[in-house]
Amino acid sequence: MAPAQPLRLARLIVILFCSLTLLLPTAAWAGLPPGNAVTDPAALLRDALPFDQPDLRELQHLLEHTDADLRASRWSVIRRNCQRAVSQLPRLDARVGGDLEAKGVSDRDQLDQLAADLRAVCAASQGQGDRDAFLAVREAALADIGAIETQLVDGFPFEIPAEFDALPRLLGRATVELETSKGRITTIVDGYNAPLTAGAYVDLVQRGFYDGLPFDRAEQFYVLQTGNPGGAADGFVDPDSGEERNVPLEIRIPGERDPFYNLTFEELGLYKAVPTLPFSSYGTLGWAHSDRALDDGSSQFFMFLFQPQLTPAGLNLIDGRYAAFGYVVDGFTVLQELGADDRIIEARVIEGGDGLRAHA
């Protein structure tokens, strides 16, 4: 039951799909999901946070959506949007500050820092604008927003089905570093939206399971995979039970309170759905399973080598067939250099490990 080639079918479908789209008439292409989805891992992680504060979310998107105006050098539009954002600061301060206080967070330093960084964003947009300077201060403001949004998360957003009580789960987020033979990669795994998948991964990292394992599958522009242990087993054998531990396919979509388990988007009839954690960023973390079953993933994971031309965001056919559970956020140059001759030297949890539970 080896998930040795867990993405073979999906890869074939992707190649056929990309070839066929070149032959589709414009009207047929127009009915497909948009291909200009979010590809920045930090933005994807902000969007995936389960909190209810529309004013802050609106400000986040206002800043993120300046990308299109930057590419077209529409500085006048950027200036207007910056001024609009600054004009909303008093209302934002009152509403977000009130929500933070209701959660028992009384420190307003982060709100003051956000206000200062927003004004710096506006200043950087003046005149013809300096793109690099603007991006630097915008990143700082978005980091402020992300930090505040994290504080606004109100507990874990749903109940995990009792049938999975024996499996580990991550009730939040964790930062995991992969020290590889080419250098260091930093990942953030998201237990808010994939608690069982992220929980299995973090549990194995803490056990030292991945230390020394090779990247046994490296396909340029597609995936880099590891997690296949030596010996007869294809995954992690639980020392207590003596059996291989399996993790269900787990995918959450916006607007649904709970994830779907062991069902693909095709089986659900969700042909145009986009997961809360989509495969739309270079280095998206995905959990492997075999072509024969959806629930036999055990320890093997892959980093999706997103390429807009081959696997466009919002159009690739891996979404809804495999579970994404996090993103590479640093070390992209290292990821580009890794191949089948490389390995993980050490994997370690550097933040968020206290959110791991061994079982329900």
From TrEMBL:
Enzyme's top EC category = isomerase
Question: Domain PPIase cyclophilin-type, which positions?
Answer: 183-338
Gene Ontology molecular functions: peptidyl-prolyl cis-trans isomerase activity
Q: Which UniProt keywords apply?
A: Isomerase, Rotamase, Thylakoid
Question: EC number(s) in its UniProt entry?
Answer: 5.2.1.8
**PANTHER family attached here?**
PEPTIDYL-PROLYL CIS-TRANS ISOMERASE CYP38, CHLOROPLASTIC (PTHR43246)
Q: What is this protein called?
A: peptidylprolyl isomerase
What is the organism field in this record?
Aphanocapsa feldmannii 277cV
> What is this organism's lineage?
Bacteria, Bacillati, Cyanobacteriota, Cyanophyceae, Oscillatoriophycideae
